[in-house]
């Protein structure tokens, strides 16, 4: 049995920023299924938003303008008190990373460079070429190393230990040894990222399976606003590797098979820099109406930016295009299509990152504070990891000091035995279903029926299909291989998580009979504030999710029609 004061589950940016803060108050460790530098935060490209007013065209920018853009972008579903915290703290958190050594790109005056991003009134997105997430991740990791924060890397958390609504620790699997262990803790922070892998078309990595969301849901914490899934407009065709919004921020055009800049039709003012929900739908409409290239993608044109700008500002985009699509954007068009990119919903928590379970906190993409509402603006996710990672760390670290140690061995042993039994069942199997087949059926169903344009019929079919897959999951074939380093075992556990999360997304989407932000119902095409200016809360029950709704916090900005 291991024992620490604060356990942070997840070694990405939110997890590391939380651990850095918590470690100033209490004994803190990180448990991560991969080495922190392999976390998905490293895949973030375009930048981090902060109203620094460094760019020539952004001198009038301030946190209130950032807050307004974020709230309008969210289609007024974000909690405005939380957005205020996000946008007010943005400059300090960003400059802190600069002081810790993040190699941001620079203006001629030597200040942090900022580029325009979708839905933003000013060039507000601070960047390090097109590898901002990577550089921030390395910078945060240096601080983790400097502070001697222990990282249990290649450990996979299977469940939370909870007693009388107080968190007591976690059960985690040592992937290399294949052994389950108890980790006692006074407080736990979940920072495990999103659940993009439930979609067959996604910019996310294979580790983004929503495990933190699932273990919180299983322990009784509601998941909030899970129907709001972000589809990034420009994923490379056909691999779906992210082609940063920074490419459009630098001036890239979107063109259809006729060579037409079609955004003129959908967002004549903002064009390619309308928010992601608008641009993704516009691309999909072009494709659906027969103006896609080869019927499945459109083109991103960077040629007019010139070689120098592409090489200095977008070197990663060029590399990805050359390596994975065999096109050189300096003189060729990049094939792009919308793909799942981000989970706006997540573990329900307040602006202090507290969940319904005492001592359990959540931060980053796995959490829903909510600062993104129905549609996140590009550049706000890296920001959220730092702002709310720090807050979660402060809260969990300072409150750990007030919790007395728990010596109730029985509870820990029972939690361990439950997960050991579950894993034995999976390893031994009771049928002949192949988990990888189930996983692909789930991922394709989510793309075919729960994508950009939704309606009751396909959503109900998806609900039935996920129900069928859940039943088949109980007839899995034995998991092959030894107990040590058994990634098939991890994938089977994750499949069960993803089936539960898919069900939550579908049920939440079916019940939200309106169109708002990323959630578009063809059968309910209008936003309906009277019925749905509310957060969805999905609670786990043995029969599937039970939904409740909670109020959206509105402070300064009254809901209005979104026009771009
Ligand atoms: O397009 C991008 O570079 C992604 C940024 C983000 O999701 O915030």
Explained architecture:
The chain is α/β, with parallel strands linked by helices. 37% of the residues lie in helices and 18% in strands. The protein has helices at residues 13-22, 63-73, 80-99, 132-146, 211-218, 246-249, 263-266, 276-291, 307-313, 315-325, 380-400, 409-428, 435-449, 456-473, 487-511, 529-532; strands at residues 2-3, 6-9, 28-32, 48-49, 114-115, 125-126, 150-153, 155-163, 166-174, 179-184, 187-190, 223-224, 229-236, 253-255, 298-301, 334-343, 346-348, 360-362, 367-368, 453-454, 520-521, 534-539, 546-551. The chain has a five-stranded parallel sheet with strand order 7-3-2-11-18, with helices on both faces. It has a five-stranded mixed sheet with strand order 19-17-12-22-23. A hairpin with a 6-residue loop joins strand 22 and strand 23. It is globular, with a radius of gyration of 22 Å. The termini are far apart. The model has no long low-confidence stretch (mean pLDDT 97). The protein binds fumaric acid (FUM).
């Amino acid at each position: 049995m291991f024992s620490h004061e604060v356990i942070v589950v997840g070694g990405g940016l939110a997890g590391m920023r939380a651990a850095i803060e918590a470690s100033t108050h209490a004994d803190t460790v990180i448990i991560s299924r991969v080495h922190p530098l392999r976390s998905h935060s490293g895949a973030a490209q375009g930048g981090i938003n902060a109203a620094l007013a460094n760019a020539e065209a952004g001198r009038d920018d301030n946190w209130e303008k950032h807050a307004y853009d974020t709230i309008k972008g969210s289609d007024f579903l974000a909690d405005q008190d939380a957005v205020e915290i996000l946008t007010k703290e943005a400059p300090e958190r960003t400059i802190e990373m600069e002081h810790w050594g993040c190699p941001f790109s620079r203006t001629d005056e030597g200040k942090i460079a900022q580029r325009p991003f979708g839905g933003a009134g000013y060039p507000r997105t601070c960047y390090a070429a097109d590898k901002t997430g990577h550089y921030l991740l390395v910078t945060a990791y240096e601080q983790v190393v400097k502070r001697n924060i222990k990282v249990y890397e290649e450990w996979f958390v299977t469940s939370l230990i909870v007693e009388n609504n107080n968190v007591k620790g976690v059960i985690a699997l040592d992937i290399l040894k294949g052994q389950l262990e108890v980790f006692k803790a006074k407080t736990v922070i979940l920072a495990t990222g999103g659940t993009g892998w439930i979609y067959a078309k996604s910019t996310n990595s294979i580790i983004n399976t929503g495990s933190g969301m699932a273990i919180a849901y299983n322990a009784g914490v509601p998941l909030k606003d899970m129907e709001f899934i972000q589809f990034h407009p420009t994923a490379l065709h056909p691999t779906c590797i992210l082609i940063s919004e920074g490419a459009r921020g630098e001036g890239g055009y979107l063109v259809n098979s006729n060579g037409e800049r079609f955004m003129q039709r959908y967002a004549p003012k903002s064009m390619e820099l309308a928010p992601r929900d608008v641009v993704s739908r516009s691309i999909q409409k072009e494709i659906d109406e027969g103006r896609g290239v080869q019927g499945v993608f459109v083109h991103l044109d960077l040629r007019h930016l010139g070689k120098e700008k592409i090489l200095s500002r977008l070197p990663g985009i060029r590399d990805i295009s050359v390596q994975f699509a065999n096109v050189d954007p300096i003189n060729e068009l990049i094939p792009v299509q919308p793909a799942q990119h981000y989970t706006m919903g997540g573990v329900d928590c307040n602006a202090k990152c507290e969940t319904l379970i005492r001592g359990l906190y959540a931060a980053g993409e796995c959490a829903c504070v909510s600062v993104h509402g129905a549609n996140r603006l590009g550049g706000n996710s890296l920001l959220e990891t730092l702002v709310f990672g720090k807050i979660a760390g402060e809260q969990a670290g300072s409150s750990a000091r007030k919790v007395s140690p728990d010596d109730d061995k029985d509870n820990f042993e029972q939690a361990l035995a439950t997960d050991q039994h579950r894993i034995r069942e999976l390893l031994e199997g009771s049928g002949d279903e192949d988990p990888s087949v189930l996983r692909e059926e789930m991922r394709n169903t989510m793309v075919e029926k729960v994508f950009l344009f939704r309606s009751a019929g396909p959503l109900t079919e998806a609900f039935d299909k996920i129900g069928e897959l859940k039943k088949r999951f109980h007839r899995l074939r034995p998991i092959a291989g030894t107990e040590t380093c058994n990634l098939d075992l991890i994938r089977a556990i994750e499949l069960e998580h993803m089936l539960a999360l898919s069900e939550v997304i579908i049920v939440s989407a079916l019940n939200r009979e309106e169109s708002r932000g990323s959630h578009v119902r063809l059968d309910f095409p209008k936003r309906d504030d009277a019925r749905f200016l509310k957060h969805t809360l999905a609670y786990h029950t043995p029969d599937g999710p039970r939904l409740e709704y909670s109020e959206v916090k509105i402070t300064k900005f009254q809901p209005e029609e979104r026009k771009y």
